[in-house]
Design goal:
The protein is α+β, with helices and mostly antiparallel strands. 49% of the residues lie in helices and 22% in strands. The protein has four helices and six strands, in the order αααββαββββ. A six-stranded antiparallel β-sheet has the order 1-2-6-5-4-3, with helices on one face. A hairpin with a 7-residue loop joins strand 4 and strand 5. Helix 2 crosses helix 3.
């Protein structure tokens, strides 16, 4: 029992020291290498990775004494920071779930974007009335959108019956928006332009 407690204490001390070393090293590198406007975000992601990686590696090498823990903290901090960076890039590249095109359609997909982030534009025509597809999107937007939104006539003199709605999608840390434009071709045929834009 006493030996088990001693090992547990050693692991905890190793994890704490490794976390401090890993977090301090990564934080120092972030402050030295990042532009001032990006420091807070970089510390949040990379610093957290450094702390977690340093803690894990510090706990693993705790039997080698303080020098081993310090070296483990450095290695773990850099490794954790690298994994956090890769995870963040992956997260930023993939949008969170948002309203989906009308069931059973095949949409033409175009990609756009700029300095803020990418956008996916899906266009399709479906054999339903304007009111029916609007009701469909209202249900979808109630499910995914976090702010207040409503359909309104699209501000285009060539299409006075067209309708449009946009909203913000629930997403952690980064922003994401959704826009849909509905264009009635006939009483029972509607063209939809469905746009997802997300911050990367």
């Amino acid at each position: 029992m006493k030996l088990h407690l001693m090992r547990s204490n050693k692991l905890i001390k190793g994890a704490l020291l490794g976390a401090v070393v890993g977090g301090a090293l990564v934080s120092f590198l972030v402050v030295v290498t990042s532009e001032s406007r990006f420091i807070a975000d970089a510390l949040l992601v990379l610093g957290t990775g450094g702390v977690i990686g340093g803690a894990l590696c510090g706990a693993i090498v705790s039997k080698y004494g303080k020098m081993g823990i310090a070296i483990g903290g450095i290695i773990g901090g850099i490794g954790g920071c690298s994994l956090a960076a890769i995870g963040t890039i992956g997260y930023a590249a993939i949008p969170w779930p948002s309203p989906q095109p009308y069931s059973g359609v095949t949409a033409q997909v175009d990609w756009g974007g700029g300095s803020w982030g990418p956008s996916r534009i899906q266009t399709y025509t479906v054999a339903v009335s304007l009111d029916t597809i609007q009701q469909y999107y209202e249900g979808q937007m109630n499910r995914y959108c976090e702010d207040t939104w409503k359909f309104s006539n699209f501000s285009d003199s060539e299409c006075p019956l067209c309708r449009e709605a946009d909203c913000k999608i629930r997403r952690l840390w980064l922003e994401q928006y959704f826009t849909v434009r509905l264009h009635p071709i006939s009483e029972m045929q509607t063209e939809a332009t469905h746009i997802d834009s997300w911050q990367d």
